[in-house]
Amino acid sequence: MDRIKFLGDVKIRPALIQLLNLGMIISSALIIWKGLMCITGCESPVVVVLTGSMEPGFKRGDILFLHMNKEPIRAGEIVVYNVDGRDIPIVHRVIKAHERRDTGEIDILTKGDNNPVDDISLYSGGQLWLNRHHIIGRAIGYLPYVGYLTIIMTEMPIVKHLLIVVLALLVITSKE
């Protein structure tokens, strides 16, 4: 009987409710992300512009919304691509796209609007073109500067850790 009284004094139930609330928030975010992946056809439906290579159209810190469909990629489109050996996707404009007659595959050459030369030097060694499997998505919209928090957290990890601590404290100390 003393043990039951002790557990009641510690108030485990409110702590468990807080933990469940945190789990629900994280689960909801993951469900929304997976839903966006299904709707847009992209493995990453939202990306942050990390450099000034697309200025003046897109600036560092802008968030891009992506989608992907079966339509052929054409010159002038803004695409996000990933090349072998690099973890961070690149946002640039397609400057040339042509279809190979023998296979029907489309070769793509990209360039940042603010860069003096094309992206061949960014591709994997010896690669002259991107193919469709390199393309993560096509830009369909953006929000200016909203992604700066992501950039700050990447460049200054202490900010990310402080934000996590503050959010954890808010969850732990909230009444409901």
Could you please describe the fold and organization of this structure?
It is found in: Endoplasmic reticulum membrane. Pfam families: Peptidase_S24 (PF00717). It catalyses: Cleavage of hydrophobic, N-terminal signal or leader sequences from secreted and periplasmic proteins. The protein is of the alpha+beta class and 176 residues long. The chain has a domain at 46-149: Ribbon (Umud Fragment, subunit A). 36% of the residues lie in helices and 21% in strands. It contains 4 helices and 6 strands; from the N terminus they run H-H-E-E-E-E-E-E-H-H. It has helices at 2-10, 12-40, 148-155, 157-173, and strands at residues 46-48, 63-67, 78-81, 90-99, 106-111, 135-143. A 6-stranded antiparallel sheet has the order 1-2-6-3-4-5. The mean pLDDT is 86.
